[in-house]
Structures are given as structure tokens and as C-alpha cells.
């Protein structure tokens, strides 16, 4: 009598009521979670295919079911955290009126809550993404996506006035991203010993002041 095929047999049919596609999606999620755990505590250098599989409690053969390389897995983790962070920003901006003076504070407070609720998020976003050569290319693309989101806030009449210059907004969005990236990195690494409330107030002040910078001809 032939043995029944197990979940690893490669047969694309339900196993114990779970479809093959769902099993694969679950394994992929386990690998992402495992990589995030290592990357967010020990850093990119500590991430290996075998280590991730051990953390995920999966055999190594499953790694290549979802990822072609270690670099692809690292990039997927960075993209996941960055997407979550961007969603937090967008939601905070959408919940605030564009002419609200509290718009920036709500956005900064929401983002700060996101990166402090799980310190691994902050490390992935502000330490590993900047230091790991494996993430350099995708990291640059994600910076562009973040600056586009920041620009949404900087176009607010409450920040840039009614006649904001689009080139000023673009330049200021990049300046804000650069300033905040280093501020958060230093603060999350506890190199800047200030409490959370003061940090948020300072970040808000930085954004509001940069938003006023301008270089269009009639301002020269």
C-alpha cells in the first residue's frame, strides 16, 4: 500500500485542509519574520540562510522556495518595514486637515510610536538600511518613496503657505528625510539622551523650519 504524500512531497493539493499555496505563503512569512528578528537585533552581517532557517524552524530546502538569495530576503524585510512605516505616515496625514497646524506633530508622533513600539523596526530602517551594501540599491529607491510622502505634508498651506514652489518642496523633502534619518538613528541608539516628548518636539521644529526654506528667483 502506497504511503500518503506528505506536505513536502511537491503535490499541489491540500494537506490537512491547507492548500499548497497557503502553506508556501506561511513558510515565506516565517522566513521573513525570522530574518527580521535577526536583522533587527544582531544586524545584517549576522543574517545567514542557515541561521534564518533555524530561527524559522524550517529546513533549508524551503529557503529557495521563496527567495533566490540572501540579498533578496534582506531586501524583502526592508521593504516590508518601510511599507509599514510609510503607511503609518500616510494614515496620519490623511487624518489631519492639510491646513492644520498640528499636522506635522501628529505625523511625527505616529511615526515615532511605530519605531519605538518595536525597536527592531528602527534598526532596520535607520541603521541596517544605511550600512549594508546588500541593501544600498533598494534603500535608495525607498528613500525616493519616503521623500515623496514627506512632500505631501510639505505642500500643506500650514507649512509652505498658499504659493509653495514645487522645486522648493522637492528639495525640502529631501532635506527633511536626511535630517530625520540621522536624528532618529542617534536617538534610537541612545547617543542623544533626550526623552521622547522632547525628541518629538525637536523633530517637529526641524521639519517646520526646513519647510520654510526657499530658493526660487523672487526669493533671492
UniProtKB/TrEMBL annotation:
Residues in coiled coil: none
Tagged with keyword DNA-binding: yes
HTH tetR-type domain ranges (all copies): 25-85
Superkingdom of this protein's organism: Bacteria
UniProtKB keywords: DNA-binding
Family matches, as InterPro entries: Homeodomain-like_sf, HTH-type_TetR-like_transc_reg, HTH_TetR, Tet_transcr_reg_TetR-rel_C_sf
Keyword DNA-binding listed: yes
DNA-binding region: 48-67
Signal peptide as annotated in the record: none
GO-annotated molecular function: DNA-binding transcription factor activity; transcription cis-regulatory region binding
Protein name (record): HTH tetR-type domain-containing protein
Species, as recorded: Amycolatopsis albispora
High-level lineage: Bacteria, Bacillati, Actinomycetota, Actinomycetes, Pseudonocardiales
Amino acid at each position: 500500500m502506497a504511503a500518503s504524500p506528505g506536505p513536502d512531497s511537491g503535490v499541489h493539493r491540500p494537506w490537512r485542509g491547507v492548500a499548497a499555496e497557503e502553506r508556501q505563503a506561511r513558510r515565506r512569512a516565517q522566513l521573513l519574520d525570522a530574518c527580521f528578528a535577526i536583522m533587527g537585533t544582531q544586524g545584517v552581517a549576522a543574517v545567514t540562510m542557515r541561521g534564518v532557517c533555524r530561527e524559522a524552524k524550517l529546513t533549508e530546502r524551503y529557503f529557495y522556495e521563496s527567495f533566490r538569495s540572501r540579498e533578496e530576503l534582506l531586501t524583502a524585510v526592508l521593504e516590508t518595514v518601510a511599507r509599514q512605516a510609510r503607511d503609518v505616515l500616510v494614515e496620519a496625514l490623511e487624518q489631519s486637515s492639510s491646513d492644520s497646524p498640528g499636522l506635522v506633530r501628529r505625523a511625527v508622533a505616529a511615526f515615532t510610536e511605530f519605531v519605538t513600539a518595536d525597536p527592531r523596526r528602527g534598526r532596520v530602517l535607520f541603521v541596517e538600511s544605511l550600512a549594508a551594501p546588500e541593501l544600498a540599491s533598494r534603500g535608495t529607491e525607498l528613500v525616493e518613496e519616503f521623500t515623496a510622502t514627506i512632500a505631501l505634508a510639505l505642500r500643506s498651506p500650514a507649512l509652505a503657505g498658499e504659493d509653495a514652489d514645487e522645486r522648493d518642496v522637492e528639495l525640502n523633502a529631501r532635506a527633511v528625510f536626511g535630517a530625520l534619518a540621522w536624528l532618529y538613528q542617534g536617538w534610537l541608539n541612545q547617543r542623544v539622551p533626550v526623552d521622547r516628548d522632547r525628541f518629538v518636539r525637536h523633530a517637529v521644529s526641524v521639519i517646520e523650519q526646513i519647510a520654510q526654506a526657499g530658493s526660487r528667483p523672487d526669493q533671492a
